[in-house]
Structure formats: C-alpha cells, structure tokens
Amino acid sequence: MSFLNTTEVAFGLDISDRNLRMIQLEKKSKKIKVQLYSEVKLPPDCIISGEIKQPKVFLDSLNKMIKTKVGRGKLSDEVISVLPEEKTFFKIINMPLVSDEEIIDKIKEVLPQDIPVDFNDVYMDYQIMEKTDKGLVVLVGISPKNIIESYVDILAKANLIPTVLEIESAPISRLLLEQATNQTPQIIIDIGAQRTGLFLHDKTIKFTVSLPISGNNITKHIVDTLEMKWDEAEKAKIVCGLDKTKCHGALLEIFSDVINELNTRITKAINFYYYNFPDSKKIERIVLCGGGANFIDIAPVLESKLKIPVVVSNPWEIIENPNTSFFNDQRSQSFITALGLGLRGLRPDTFL
C-alpha cells in the first residue's frame, strides 16, 4: 500500500526508531545489483514509536547517511520510504460493485463500520484486489496526516523528493515473495530490535499482527536472567541461540515461556485467517526475517511446535550481495526493508 506514486527510478530509505538505511539498485541485463548503500544510527529519542521528535537531529543524520554512502554513480533525488507500522492501518473490505468515481465515497461509508476514523485527519489509499459481478474486494490503507506530512517535510529539507510511502510489510513481501514460484499462503515474521510484526500473505497482505517479542527484549531477558552485560548477551544470543548443545542449553531453558507465547500468538493468527477469510487456504510455510531472525535455532524450535515449515529468509535470492563483509547474515536481515523499497524504486510497476 503506497500513499504516493512514482514512475522514475528512486532509492529506498528505511526509517526506524534507531537507524536509517538506504539502498539504490540497478538492473544490468537480467541481474539486479546494489548500486549505492549506507547506514547510520539515530541518536536516542530522535524518533519514538515512528514519530520524529527531533527534526534537526534527524535531518543531520539523514545528510550524514547520504554523504557516507558507498558505491558508484549518482544517488537519485527521488526516494521511496516507509511509514511506521504502528502509525498505519490497513484492512480488506468487501463492498458492492460501484463505479471508479464512487469508490472513495463508498470506502468512507463502509470503513467506519469496522474502525473509528476521522477522514479529515488521515490520508487514505486503496487498491482493488478483486472485482466480480457481485462486488469489490478492496485493500484500504490509512495513516495520520501529521505523520505523513512530517516525513514528507523532513525529506524535502534534505533536497529529496518523496515519491512513495509504503507500510513496512509491503517492501518485505516484495523482496521475499516476488520471485516465488509457489504463491501459496505464507506468514512472514519480521523480528526487529524494537518490535516484531507478523503479516499473512495470500496473493496480497491479508492482515498484520504485533507479537510480544523483539530483539531488544530477548537481549534484556538474557541480561536479567544470566546477569550478563548487554554486549555479552547480544553475543550469546547470536552464538548460542536456542541450540541446546551450546551454552549448556541455557537460553533454550530461559526462553521456553517466550517461545510458547510466540507459538500461541502465531496459532491465533492462523486461526483468525482460517475463520475470517472464506477463500483461505492452508498456510504452507513461515518465513522469519529482520535482525532477530539470526537467533540461532529459533526456526526449528518454532517448526517443531507449529508443525509448519519455518525458514529464515534469504535477502539475496534475487539481488547480488555487493559486499559480504558489510552485508553479513545479521546486517543483511536488517536491510530487508530497504532492499524491498529499493526494488519498488527500480521497478515502479511493482505493487504489493
């Protein structure tokens, strides 16, 4: 779901509470390559829950990211960025068959039946997913005007043209599912440092759910339980993970409750899909991505509980990795959103 549109090549900019990451792609023959990339950390409290609290600090960090970019060629002045997931909402709604001119008015009539919304305070975008003689299936996205306008304004101050703003699940789906030959229903779980999102993809994104786990929560739990320093806990998380043969199986033991809760939430999401979508099909697999996906053995542990194949994503399946030293396994997972945004900029006809 995008709130703006473009027909030109643009670079992807991932904005989170802690980092800025950018990717500009290029296509040569049949290969997609990374042309330019960069990453900077944001100072604490610069962005809180998706809201830019310190515009000047943010702008300085953005300019630093652009200045320190790595690669070749000119950086586009057009940018595709991401809206904070916690500040966006989308829903699939069914409505009677109406003309193109009437559809927005009909959405405004139907949507408030499910959620309270003041259309004076939000921007709205929609995509027709299905059209039959009986009616329309429409994917509707909304986000507060003040959030979108703050992002557009700050990007413009950096002499950038914000041409597309997407919800975070869209670029992730684009990167991980675009080349999939088997378009069966799948769940993607993006385990970030601050939050984790689950979204169910069946031809399109059906719904998203927040999950009670994040990279920082995992680290803090290790710190508190094993009385480690933060850096030591981060290392243990990656080196030992949930492997029962490493670190005497300590992390597997202390995270049993967390894994059980995660299993319960995923199961509830699957059941919600089966019970609320008449055309639902069997979930064929679960894909883990994001920096927290590097938590060793989380995939097989979840798979054993859910009885559904669980895999860790490969961000470089359709794009060449330009620098395996920089884009190691952990950093590659953290760049998934930026890579997906870069794909949207490289091929503006792509829309998920």
UniProtKB/TrEMBL annotation:
Gene3D superfamilies assigned to the protein according to its UniProt record, in alphabetical order? 3.30.1490.300, 3.30.420.40
One Pfam family for this entry, by name? PilM_2
InterPro entries xref list: ATPase_NBD (IPR043129), FtsA/MreB (IPR050696), PilM (IPR005883)
Q: What is this protein called?
A: SHS2 domain-containing protein
